[in-house]
Amino acid sequence: LADKLSARTGWRSAAILVGLVAVAGTVLAAAAALALVDASGDLSMLLWRGLVVIPAVTAVLLLCSMLFGRQASPELGIPLWIWSLTLIALAVVVPAAYADAVADNLRTELQQSLDGQRLALAKRQADELRQLKPHWEVHKTSIQRLQRELGQAVDQLRSEAADRVPSSAPLPIVGRRITVLVQLGRYREALTLAEPLTTGEHFNPIALDYSGLCYQRLEQPWESLQAYRRAIRYWDAHPAGAEQQRGLASALKGVAFAARRLEDRTLEEQTYQRLVDVAPTAESHFLMAQCYREHQKAGLAATHASTAIELDPNYQEQAAGILSSLSRDHFGCLQVPR
């Protein structure tokens, strides 16, 4: 009886200790989160984590310890106070680590959206990232400022898209509207405007590029491939020159991307190789390196990554990442220069 009372008292003390530490941790996390609330008054996810997640996880872990820890702790020789502090540490660290991982991935996606001029999508991603990490920067710009600027840009684009485009509108106006719709992520509407420009007397090769891009983002790689192939046939028949090189390079990138989505590795490699031949730029070599890296062709990937760095030092960080990953994947194979 005495042993039972002692065990019950020990677990009651542990529960009280866990509760007190949880309350203290919650108060501290909430205070820190409130300090990060910006001038707009928006609450960050840190506050949500402090007020809800940490106590919830603590409660779950405490319940598990009450149910299963009675037998485990004596056998393992773990003092109750160590067990309790371990639960608190897990309750704090696990939600924080998960939030950091989500934020890192979100920032990468936001950077990609900005590079691709997908402004409406970038605005949504910036809203989410600001809730998770209100003091982070993206492209050396604070997330608060970036969110505000994206909001203004998207509002302006939506206002512009609200105006009706007459059927007799000149090509520059139609082209501008297609661009606006693509930036807003309204790809079906953009395709409706671009389609008449892909054939007939109003044909414009840029419309084929936009069609390929819209199909690409609508997750229709086969249709995207066909549009970009038509663009390649047009530019192949066009007189050589700077305009032909730019148009052909753009279409080749589209074909290679569609081939990747269709898992046609041969077509992807052949297309990127032609891109390198047509436009031997740092970007072309970097894309070729990425392709070979994904296809596990380490030697070729390393060669093109190194060439990209030589042509443009701005690719140093990205290309070095490919070389580093190759070094890890093929350590000791003497395929990657060190």
Rg is 28 Å
Tally of contiguous helical segments: 14
SS-derived structural category = mainly alpha
The largest beta-sheet arranges its strands as: 1-2
The run of helices and strands is HHHHEEHHHHHHHHHH
State the end-to-end distance: 70 Å
Q: Name the helicity range.
A: over 70%
Extract low-pLDDT stretches.
1-5, 33-44, 70-76, 330-338
User: Mean of the pLDDT scores?
Assistant: 78
Number of DSSP-assigned strands? 2
Based on Cα principal axes, name the global outline.
Answer: globular
Report the biggest beta sheet as strand number plus sense, adding barrel if it closes: 2 strands, antiparallel
- As a percent range, the share of strand residues is under 5%
Model description:
This protein is an all-alpha fold and 338 residues long. Helices cover 77% and strands 1% of the residues. The protein contains 14 helices and 2 strands; from the N terminus they run H-H-H-H-E-E-H-H-H-H-H-H-H-H-H-H. The chain has helices at 2-35, 45-76, 80-115, 119-132, 143-162, 171-183, 187-194, 205-217, 221-236, 242-261, 265-278, 282-294, 298-311, 316-329; strands at residues 137-138, 141-142. A two-stranded antiparallel ribbon has the order 1-2. Helix 1 (2-35) packs antiparallel against helix 2, helix 4 (119-132) packs antiparallel against helix 5 and helix 7 (187-194) runs antiparallel to helix 8. The longest helix is centred in the first third of the chain and has 36 residues, at 80-115. The termini are far apart.
